[in-house]
Amino acid sequence: MLGNLKGLLVTLSSMLRKPVTYQYPKEHKPIENRYMGFPVLMWDSQISEPYCTGCMVCVRYCPTQCMTAVMKDNPLHAEGVSKRRKIVDSFEINFGRCIVCGICVDVCNFDAIEMSHEHELSKYARNDNRSDLTRLLEMGRKYQEETDWKPKTNAKESEEEASS
Q1: In the chain, how many domains are there?
Q2: Residues whose CB falls within 8 Å of the CB of residue 46, separated by 6 or more in sequence, listed in order
Q3: The overall pTM is greater than 0.85
Q4: What tens digit of pLDDT does each residue of 96-131 get?
Q5: Distance (Å, rounded) from C-alpha 104 to C-alpha 113?
Q6: What CATH number has the domain bearing residue 68?
Q7: Residue 163 domain-assigned (yes or no)
Q8: Cα–Cα nearest to 114, from 94, 142, 154
């Protein structure tokens, strides 16, 4: 009898607590800033071009070889608007092969690729998991708006200018 009452008290006390589960399709758990979702390409809004130069460092270091990139000459560099001589012409990531390790972000010298908050990219067909340059830049802009992202290299330069 006493055991039954203790069990009932445990049940009643847990009924009064706030639920910890989310009804997934309807409710989304808030994503923390440090969350690592799929990689995306970042957009330089000052010059209106992607940060990516197509240097292929991320492609070479990727352990699953899920990325492909092609570079071209930057027309804005010829006009004197941009400092980047080369720019990405095409970029593709196969999210079906990506293991979300973040190595591509670590090796990028231009702050062109970041781990976004995107994690709901499942598809029914295997080939639908590929994302091209326009989709990656679109997801990157969304990530920049959500997090007020600033490139690390530009932040270092602005700190040096402010201190001198």
Answers
A1: 1
A2: none
A3: no
A4: 999 999 999 999 999 999 999 998 888 888 888 899
A5: 7
A6: 3.30.70.3270
A7: no
A8: 142
